[in-house]
Design brief:
The protein is α/β, with parallel strands linked by helices. Helix content is about 30%, strand content about 35%. It is globular.
Length: about 200
């Protein structure tokens, strides 16, 4: 009987821990979405700059701290691909951030004592936990400014939770997100020859 109780308690504990680990993995890995204009010719773009007023700026006249981090990281990614910052660019960069308050309800096996079958076991039903969190969607937009009508040619977005850890370490988190997003940008500036990948010698 004792072994049976121990087995049941261990089984429910493993289910609870597995669910927690799965939720943690989902929360730490944002969803990424990419859209592209199929008619855009990326072989012609050489230069870039940022929109005078970015979507992540609250007021005109200055850039928010978030915008500054995004601009620094995006400049590094584009210049590593051969793009040059210019006053009259081929591509203008913009950012957007949308947030939404959400509620998640989860149920997990309770470890409280209770009747299980004919014997006294550890199963006590399910406990429901309700949590409120902020979900954010950060987008990077590349806009073709070489034509009379500006045209959005590439967009990438990351969707995930905005936690206190993100807010406290905003600069490094923004740098990491921008780096991850640009792994989905396979283009180089016109005429730029990417460096050969380095291989470690054994």
């Amino acid at each position: 009987m004792k072994l049976n109780r121990f087995y049941k308690a261990t089984q429910f504990l493993m289910i609870t821990l597995t669910a927690a680990l799965m939720l943690g993995a989902c929360a730490s890995s944002p969803k990424i979405f990419v859209n592209q204009d199929p008619n855009a010719d990326f072989t012609t773009y050489k230069t870039y700059n940022f929109m005078p007023r970015l979507g992540t700026d609250d007021k005109t006249g200055y850039h928010s701290i978030l915008s500054q981090y995004l601009m620094n990281s995006t400049s590094q990614e584009l210049e590593a691909r051969g793009y040059i910052k210019a006053d009259n660019p081929d591509l203008s960069v913009d950012f957007e951030l949308h947030t939404q308050e959400k509620i998640r309800s989860t149920s997990s096996p309770s470890m409280a004592g209770g009747y299980y079958g004919r014997g006294y076991g550890v199963y006590g039903g399910y406990e429901t936990t309700v949590t409120q969190y902020t979900e954010g969607t950060l987008s990077i937009l590349l806009i073709d400014t070489t034509t009379k009508k500006e045209q959005l040619v590439w967009e990438v977005a990351a969707q995930g939770r905005i936690t206190d850890a993100v807010r406290k370490d905003l600069e490094s988190r923004v740098t990491q997100v921008v780096t991850d997003l640009f792994t989905h940008f396979p283009y180089y500036a016109s005429g730029f020859v990417p460096p050969e990948p380095t291989t470690s010698k054994k």
